Amino acid sequence: MIRFIYNLLWPIGLVVFLPGYLIKMFRRGSYRRKFGQRLGIYDAHLRTRLYWKKSFWLHAVSVGEVTIALKLARQIRILKPDQHCVLTTTTTTGFAFANQSAPDWIEVMYSPLDFWPVMRRAFATISPKAVILVEAEVWPNFVAEAHAREIPIALVNARLSPRSEKRFRMFRGFVAPTFRLLDAICVQNLEDIERWKAIGVEEGKISHVGSIKYDPENVEVDPELPAAVLAGFGVEKRAVIFGGSTHNGEEKVLAEVFRALRREFVDLLLVLAPRHTERTAEIRRDLEGIGFRVALRSQSPVPDPFLDCLLIDSTGELRDWYGVATLAFIGKSLLARGGQNPAEAILAGKPVVFGPHMENFAALANALLTGRGAIQVNSPTELRRAMANLLANPDDREEIVQNARKALDAHRGATARTARLMVDLVSVR
């Protein structure tokens, strides 16, 4: 009955939210490419290619989740060397990154909209042997269609914040039937088990495996391209303050902090990687408005000894750019809520600083702070002081990095454990 109501209201919701959805797609670009896949419309060549493969279907939202999916798919491939995979992604940036990064045994597609006729066409085309949802992508028709076809479906690297748990518990009668159809949920932390039980999931379906995102095994950072870009601008010898996945307003804060720090540390460079690259033009105008010389990662490098800031307007390179940082600020944590993933900076061997809002990564943030593996600040003034101390004390930077890596060790092997569970799930079914 609940899913009937959901499907009854779905077209109304589409009419209400479609304009904003299309505007967002238009801003991010490449919205026309393979748009039909979102509606379950696939060309004959793709249907033929997928027909015999019986793939693992991994579904991710954007770049961060795609990174997890690719990491897991490679580990599954180690256990099953001939296994093919389909990777669907929601955003154009995630799609572009997946196309750029996926090997030829992974078919990259756009995720179908969660409307039952669309989902039926998608399942008929992909014909998966298993469905793997990454982090939080549990959609009623998606899950129900897999269950109806007796295809095992799992949620990996499952994320359920206290805030989400509270919201789900309020509407448990609506969400529990969908969650109960999942065959397996792989959680990142022990305390997550109780949260999932509280919204109706059987304890026997929940496995504590750690976080694929934080798993330090098989993570490669290649700073050669960023180093070459910096050399092209003639700034490769400068100390770098790096703002990763910054959100609206944080770029201005980092610019003012950078301006203040340069009075003491004259050889500084500010590098900013905004979470949404479509904001690049706006950020550039703001920074140039306060007198900064700004260059874009996408432009042909020209040596500029007076360069203040380099804006990263490309996707899929964030981890490598952390490799050239002297210290890193984690975005969406000072002026916005939720935080971004600090693990990539830590795995690149860089000390991290973040604001008070790390709700989406609360367990890791708490572990880092408890073990002195990160610095948390509550204001731009505190941010400036923390960065000044780190720039002046290389030993402190190294100590923070080593402490942070110890925090990530709790998740070592999470990818392999999750892959084994997925393969076993198919074997049992």
Notable characteristics:
2 domains; 18 helices; Rossmann fold; single chain; 7-stranded parallel beta sheet; 429 residues; 14 strands; alpha/beta
Radius of gyration (CA) equals 22 Å
Overall pLDDT, averaged? Answer: 92
Strand proportion, as a percent range, falls in: 5-15%
Profile the largest sheet: 7 strands, parallel
- Into which percent range does the helicity of residues fall? 40-55%
Number of helices: 18
Class from helix and strand fractions: alpha/beta
Main sheet: which strands, in order across? 3-2-1-4-5-6-7
* CATH hierarchy, class of the largest domain: Alpha Beta
Taken from the alpha-carbon principal axes, the silhouette is globular
The low-pLDDT segments are none
Our measurement of the CA-to-CA distance between the termini, rounded to an integer number of angstroms, reads: 27 Å
Query: What is the count of distinct domains?
Result: 2
CATH architecture descriptor name of the largest domain: 3-Layer(aba) Sandwich
Provide structural commentary.
This protein has a seven-stranded parallel beta sheet with strand order 3-2-1-4-5-6-7, sandwiched between helices. Helix 3 packs parallel to helix 4, helix 5 packs across helix 6 and helix 7 packs across helix 8. The longest helix has 27 residues. It has 18 helices and 14 strands. The radius of gyration is 22 Å and the shape is globular. By secondary structure, the chain is of the alpha/beta class. The protein starts with a helix and ends with a helix. Helix content is 47%, strand content 15%. The protein has two domains: 230 residues, 3-Layer(aba) Sandwich (Rossmann fold), CATH 3.40.50.11720; 188 residues, Glycogen Phosphorylase B (Rossmann fold).
